[in-house]
Specification:
Helices cover 32% and strands 20% of the residues. It is an alpha/beta fold and 235 residues long. The two termini are 38 Å apart. Part of the 50S ribosomal subunit.
């Protein structure tokens, strides 16, 4: 078992007996347990009742969080012609086609998110081995392959989070900064859970959202009673 410092141990003091909490309590305790000097990110880990090795049980999507993520996102858009001007007018940091591919091949990756129009995806494929491992490859399922580049750029800039279940069936996603406070984090979490719930595969059997925990970057995780998740989504 890993050793933790004094501040971490103090953050979880008296919490060991609280196995499962309601969502409001878990978020409040996670935000309140922050003990570092920087503004930590609040994260959620959600265990889903799916088997990702089957393509029809892969859960992947994107969600526009009502309060954003609290960070500046640099956006690159692969596009041509009028779409380039449209992307830049919407706030894209970089927009182009062949020249953008050349920059990436040279190792210049000065962006955090990538959007592409469908007609240039063959070009994007040339740098797929570079973008893919970094989680930057555009994908239609997350709304990053679209001709509506203006709306896509605005959503990403405003704080859209992309999510994808891992091999173990666990979905990890950021919910914003500790400085947001519990109320805004709860609003973002509700939007995320609603999106994940709507993507439930028809082939998934049994309980869909099985386990959930909320934590900060450096802090402990606070487990949620899974029986309250649906009520929270519908409330």
């Amino acid at each position: 078992m890993p050793k933790h410092g004094k501040k971490y141990r103090k953050a979880i003091e008296g919490q060991e007996s609280l196995e499962k909490l309601n969502i409001e309590e878990a978020v409040s305790k996670a935000v309140g347990s922050s003990f570092v000097k920087f503004d930590e990110t609040v994260d959620v880990a959600l265990c889903l009742g799916v088997d990702p090795k089957y393509s029809d049980q892969m859960v992947r999507g994107a969600c526009a969080l009502p309060h954003g993520l609290g960070k500046t996102v640099r956006v690159a858009v692969f596009c041509k012609g009028d779409k380039e001007a449209e992307a830049k007018a919407a706030g894209a940091d970089i927009a182009g086609a062949e020249e953008l591919v050349a920059q990436i091949k040279e190792g210049n990756i000065n962006f955090d998110s990538v959007i592409a129009t469908p007609d240039v995806m063959a070009l994007v494929g040339q740098v797929g081995r570079i973008l893919g491992p970094r989680g930057l490859m555009p994908n239609a399922k997350t709304g990053t392959v679209t001709f509506d580049v203006a709306n896509a750029v605005k959503e990403v800039k405003a704080g859209r989070v992309e999510f994808k279940v891992d091999k173990a069936g666990v979905l990890h996603a950021p919910l914003g900064k500790v400085s947001f406070g519990s109320e805004k984090i709860l609003d973002n979490l509700k939007a995320l859970l609603d999106s994940v719930n709507r993507l439930k595969p028809s082939s998934a059997k049994g309980t869909y959202m099985q386990k959930m925990a909320v934590s900060t970057t450096m802090g402990p995780g606070f487990k949620v009673d899974p029986t309250v998740i649906r009520k929270f989504i519908e409330g």
